[in-house]
Amino acid sequence: MEFITESHYFRVMPFLLEGLVWTLLITFVGLILGFILGAIFGFARLSKSKLIYGIATVYVEVVRGTPILAQILFIYFGLSDLTGINIDKITASIIAIAVNAGAYIAEIVRGAVYSIDKGQEEAGRSIGLTRNQTMRYIIWPQAFRRMIPPLGNQFVISLKDTSLFSVIAVGELLYMGQQYYGMTFQAFQALTMVCVMYLVITVPTAVYLRRVERRLDV
């Protein structure tokens, strides 16, 4: 067995940097779409309409109650089989992150809005604002501030979830590390650098979120 040399830690970097680009791209685009879904279904979970509330609840419970790996395979293989349309693996990955994160963000939105004191809504109505205006100008800005820490946590979770996309050969960070040690048989070095690159992103993010949480006093 070849002795562990420092050079392998550097040789793997071009592979991992390419994978990191795809990891971040899938995470950011998926979370942007996931936030839109989460906001829609989060407010739907606050609706007084039983139909709207029911649809939103089914979405949230189904997604949160199934593993994301099963969701990835369902989107990439299942939907392609059902529709006869081949879904690009990057597109499937973004959809999987968006759908999965959207369910959790929906609960973040619902919880943040519920956490605002009821007196805030009454104050808005007392100065002549409609229910929608009260939500837009009074409730939502306060709720959004309280959503920042859990949204940051969701970013970290979704970032790590992208490692599961290696099952459909998406060239994300872990997959590229696997490709490198498949060619060189240097698994220790490759996987060590994969873990280091994840930590370089997740640890500063976690530290920053703790600071934000203290500032917001949430």
From TrEMBL:
PROSITE patterns: ABC_TM1. It is found in: Cell membrane. It holds the Pfam family BPD_transp_1. One of its GO terms (molecular function) is transmembrane transporter activity. Residues 20-209 form the ABC transmembrane type-1 domain. Its main location: membrane. CDD domains: TM_PBP2. Belongs to the binding-protein-dependent transport system permease family. HisMQ subfamily. NCBIfam families: HEQRo_perm_3TM (TIGR01726). Keywords: Amino-acid transport, Cell membrane, Membrane, Transmembrane, Transmembrane helix, Transport. InterPro entries: AA_ABC_transptr_permease_3TM (IPR010065), ArtM/GltK/GlnP/TcyL/YhdX-like (IPR043429), MetI-like (IPR000515), MetI-like_sf (IPR035906). One of its GO terms (cellular component) is ATP-binding cassette (ABC) transporter complex. One of its GO terms (biological process) is amino acid transport. Coiled coil: none annotated. The chain crosses the membrane at residues 20-44, 51-78, 90-109, 155-175, 187-209. It is a multi-pass membrane protein. This is Glutamine transport system permease protein GlnP. The gene is glnP.
